[in-house]
Write a structure and sequence with these properties.
By secondary structure, the protein is α/β, with parallel strands linked by helices. The protein has ten helices and 13 strands. The structure holds ligand PBG and zinc ion.
Length: about 300
């Protein structure tokens, strides 16, 4: 009877798997703060795509770990830069899979901020110009979806205009529309080799602000976002629920590095049943209104769903 009365379900189709590609390694390097997740070398992208597909997941989110950092993150704007190479390699290996590119600069700037700095602050509008270039570079390389993650005002509109002008009207924009300044990003900074000094509190939302979260998602919807997102996930389920009540757009959530690490380390210590807690956390996102979930558990969850 429980099966008949089930209100919410989780499917492998809901899951997106993040992948960290390091341009200077030859073998995978485990990320200590995220047990089970490694940075992979570029040459392993095709094998990794095959592994993801075999698990039953059909969407990946690509992050670059750059060793060519500079003040603007110019590597992301080059035809032969890491963003373009990752996308090309993933799309070539798995044309039927959904390739999503995290579209930001923080992994490619020597100061670790998400854009161009002027007087020590991220300059919103100069960053928009570069974001537009990066998005077109990713599109030319074959990306299906660009995912601007920097919380710059006007990013969705700037990217949409640039993609359309370059003829990429079919490339979708998954906006990290409602992204909070969070300490739960900690492990990601190790994963992505971020050199950030300071914080992102001038442009990411402060954690107590629900109304601001709604306003940010409305703004991105008005600018032409195809999908909205709440990030992090577990501490912000109320925000997810509230946005679900007011938008008709597809809406997703990012279960971030710190949420993954909590479940992993607590399970390793014997305090939690990892698989059960993983599934409960993912189902919670669906119940709160997420259509899809970006999670480092994607492969484990999909395998479990299959078995
Ligand atoms: C950077 C970016 C971050 C994450 C995804 N893209 C970190 C940040 O904003 O500081 C976090 C992902 C995670 O913690 O799993 N724009
Ligand atoms: Zn960033």
């Amino acid at each position: 009877m429980r099966a008949m009365l089930r209100e919410t379900s989780l499917s492998a189709d809901d899951l997106i798997y993040p992948i960290f590609v390091d341009e200077e390694i030859e073998t995978p390097v485990p990320i200590k703060s995220m047990p089970g997740i490694s940075r992979i070398p570029e040459a392993m992208i095709p094998d990794t795509m095959a592994e993801v597909r075999a698990a039953g997941v059909s969407a990946v989110l690509l992050f670059g770990v750059s060793h060519h950092k500079d003040a603007t993150g110019s590597d992301t704007m080059r035809e032969d830069g890491l963003v373009a190479r990752m996308v090309r390699s993933a799309k070539m290996a798995a044309p039927e899979m959904l390739i999503i590119a995290d579209t930001c600069f923080c992994e490619f700037t020597d100061h670790g901020h998400c854009g161009v700095l002027v007087d020590g602050h991220v300059h919103n509008d100069q960053t928009l110009e570069n974001l537009a270039v990066q998005a077109v570079i990713a599109a030319r390389a074959g990306v299906d979806i660009v995912a601007p993650s920097g919380m710059m005002d006007g990013a969705v509109a700037a990217i949409r205009r640039a993609l359309d002008e370059a003829g990429f009207t079919d490339v979708a924009i998954m906006s990290y529309s409602t992204k909070f300044a969070s300490e739960f990003y900690g492990p990601f900074r190790e994963a992505a080799g971020s050199s950030l000094q300071g914080d992102r509190k001038t442009h990411q939302i402060q954690s107590g602000n629900l109304r601001e979260g709604l306003r940010e998602s409305r703004a991105d919807e008005a600018e032409g976002a195809d999908m909205l997102m709440v990030k992090p996930g577990m501490p912000y389920l109320d925000v997810l629920y509230a946005i679900r009540q007011e938008t008709l757009l597809p809406l997703g959530v990012y279960q971030i590095s710190g949420e993954y690490a909590m479940i992993k380390f607590a399970s390793q210590a014997g305090a939690l049943d990892e698989k059960a807690v993983m599934m409960e956390s993912l189902l919670g996102f669906k119940r709160a209104g997420a259509d899809w979930i970006i999670t480092y558990f994607a492969l484990d969850a999909a395998r479990l769903l299959k078995s």
